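Retro notes, item 3 of 5
We never archived the inputs for the zinc ion complex last cycle. Fixing that now. Sequence and ligand:
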Amino acid sequence: MPDLYKMITADTLLNLKWEDLAPYYGDLEQEPITKEDIENWMARWTIISEIQDELYNRAYVATSVNTADEEAEKRFDAYMEEIYPNVMEAEQNLKKKLIASGLTVAGFEIPMRNMRAQAELFREENIPLRVEEEKLANQFDKIIGAQTVQWKGAEKTVRQMEVVLRDRDSQTRLEGWKTMADRQLEDRKAINDLWVQFMELREKIAANAGLPSFREFRWKELLRFDYCVADCKSFQHAIEEAVVPVANRLAERRKKALGLDRLKYCDTLVDLADAEPLKPFSDVDELKRGAKAIFSKVHPQFGAYFSQMEDEGHLDLENRKNKAAGAYCTDFAYTKRPFVFANAVGIHDDVQSVLHEGGHAFHSFESFKLPYFQQRAESAIPIEFAEVASMGMEFLSLRYLSKKHGGFYSNSEAARAQSEHLEQSLLFWPYMAMVDAFQHWAYENPQAGKDPDACDEKWSALEDRFRPYIDWSGYENVKMTGWHRKPHIHQTPFYYVEYGLAQLGAAQIWLHAAQDENRAVAMYRNALSLGGTVSLPGLFAAAGIKFSFDEQTLRQAAERMEQAILSFE
Ligand SMILES: [Zn+2]
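Structure as it came back at the time:
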């Protein structure tokens, strides 16, 4: 067998076939795991896992940087058809083998715990049900994807219409919003029907796994070892007590600034400054220069990482024809390089995206130093903390947005950008609480949860509880169907509180940095280097912050964020 590991380079990697990988997996499967040799066995498993992971990520990146590249598309499809199922099975076999051996290596307790939980949850008879669930999720996508409206003589997707909600003319915002909402309400029955199917299917999945409800199933599947249902409810309560009053005050301020006597949903996103939108850069080189300067201010090593990514061609930031939408960070595990993708067009959101994805990229750089792939794979790092890396970087960057720090803005523009970031972050918590509370209610009360009318009523009550500052009168149907417009509720149940928890972590890093920036950044960086080797509370503690659901921590963060917003006026 040729020494595959020595042959692979970034260039040859993409040409690998399953036949090239199979013998190495086969070897690891055959060979007994012994106390003497386990480190060697694990090291070889790491290499083959890294290679298949990098192969997947590179194949994916190639399709997203040029959606018209037929070669890349074929290669990606071939990967999915020929390599992916085989790799999944082979990886699963090695996990089972390791668990059965009863042996482990240092720093592997957490990955081992995760593997055991996944193995416990696995049921053969759930495979076709998960496929069924996937199909329902696709149907949901189809319904949403087909939602287009006529707006000012052109056909627009509902997503494109979101720009109208930022229009400075209140009448235009209202008309745009009504146009969107009317179109969304046309699918009310279709989404209700789909929801009932989702709920029934999920009851069966949970029952197959011997669990009392789908919530318990998801809890295990999402590897939530460090918090329970009661914690999520405490968090909702804390948001109600500590954040909603702040949101109410910000809403009053907003009404005044916009000269409105009632705040409708369509007035909640528009920029309060009576000025043109921020224009941070005119070309992507300027964006890179600014981002590099900001990262360097946070820590010289972050600036150096970003420069390295630029020099090695691992930044693809500009919007152009034939590029997939959105922004992401992925990594190449074998060559140990992160890759950042964005669609910058020259607006403030682009700056925010690059700072966010930069945080993810530095997380990869720091954790590449860990010896085993299963300690640092994307799937090994809890999202509750992965998003602290990215949101934390956004918060740490706030003070360096202005030109005097090498960033993008005049002082007053930087104040606007900071203010908007803090306001939107604050308003996110109540919304997140609604999304989470709704799902707890639905799966706790499956009969009502399956009844779309009861769902409408519940969502409406949650609006009153968490967003009392929005005046929905005259738009009750839009109000009560809000749960239709959050894909997570339908497609990735219970997956959302992660962002609320991560944001509280990021806000704590920001508070810490206001007191002692060097220490805050050093701890943040150290926590990134731990990958997935310690528990979630352990990762937060390493970053100098609390993994918390309590009112006090939240109140402290929310009030400081509010003070900062007011100080910019
Ligand atoms: Zn992220």
